Amino acid sequence: MGKRVFKIISALSFVFIMMFSLAACGSNGDKKTGLEKIKAKGTLVVGLSAATPPYEFHYSNNGKNELKGADLELVKRIAKQMDVKYEIKDMDFDGLLPALQSGKIDMIVSAMSPTPEREKAADFSKVYYKSTNVFVVKKSELSKYAKPSALKNATVATINSSTQQAVTQKYFPKAHLKLFGKSNDLALAVAHNKADAMLVDVPTAELLIRANPSLAQTNLKYNDDTAGAAIAMPNHSSKDLKDAVNTAITKYKGQYEKWIIEQVKYVKE
To answer: 254 in a domain, yes or no?
Structure first.
């Protein structure tokens, strides 16, 4: 009887030891840092909205669709810094943060500004670029929009959830906003009298005007209240992930404006 009890206790002890060992293994697996997880799968999954040239856009090369843009050049450098491949997930701008929060992407590289509201949903890197915003109207109406007061009750088109939307709401609270997912839609809205003006950054304005010569920049320019464009990572990201991203930004920040100029040649009129 005593031997049987001893055998039962020994068997149960073995089972419990195995259970704790497996739990410990699982726990250790979960302790991988953000950078370690990316390196383990060998691919950095990046979300962007490829509708804002020259930052990110689609380019047709002999019938083959390619992604181009200054942000894509930065992604390549970050992936190289991490010694992994990269994968791009293209979506509307307002879908990027939800995709990051749900784990569908590892980070956002899409000229996103770290606003206080966004900082509740994500961790941000150092700023890698800052631009000025400008109002664009029909060329025939330039004189009408020579002063800010003309925009007081105007219909203004901006990208949904963008810093330009926030700037418009701050300086022109009575303006009627029309929100879109792609910058080309802003230009079409103004060109076809669906909006009086649009607010975009200067490089985007220049490219949209090239494609839509009936439009023109006003003299009404506004800086973002935010620090500029930064990379969004999941909330509470590990230090090694942030360090890897910031190291790449520090290394290549001086080249970003050169990439913008280089990418302009791929934007078709």
So the answer is: yes
In terms of domains, do 236 and 199 share one?
no
CA distance 9 to 17: 12
> Which DSSP string corresponds to 16-67?
HHHHHHHHHHHHHHHT--HHHHHHHHTEEEEEE-TEETTTEEEEEETTEEEE
Q: With the C-alpha atoms ordered 119, 123, 127, 133, is the resulting torsion angle positive or negative?
A: negative
Residues 57 and 109 in one domain: yes
Q: Collapse the DSSP code of 160 into the 3-class scheme (helix H, G, I; strand E, B; otherwise coil) and give the result.
A: coil
How far apart are the C-alpha atoms of 143 and 140, rounded to whole Å? 8
- Evaluate whether residue 42 is within a structural domain: yes
Number of other CB atoms surrounding residue 210 within 10 Å: 14
Asked if residue 125 and residue 232 are part of one domain, the reply reads yes
- pTM equals 0.70
Residues β-bridged to residue 198: 136, 157
Backbone angles phi, psi at 175, to 5 degrees: -70, 150
Q: Does the residue 10 lie in any domain?
A: no
Q: Domains in the chain: how many in total?
A: 2
204 and 181 in a single domain? The answer is yes
Can you give the residue range of the structural domain that contains 182? 132-223
pLDDT digit string (tens) for the chain, length 269 residues: 555 544 555 555 554 554 554 444 444 455 889 999 999 999 999 999 998 889 999 998 888 999 999 999 999 999 999 999 999 999 999 999 999 999 999 999 999 989 889 999 999 999 999 888 999 999 999 999 999 999 999 999 999 988 899 899 999 999 999 999 888 999 999 999 999 999 998 888 988 998 899 999 999 999 866 668 999 999 999 999 999 999 999 999 889 989 988 898 888 75
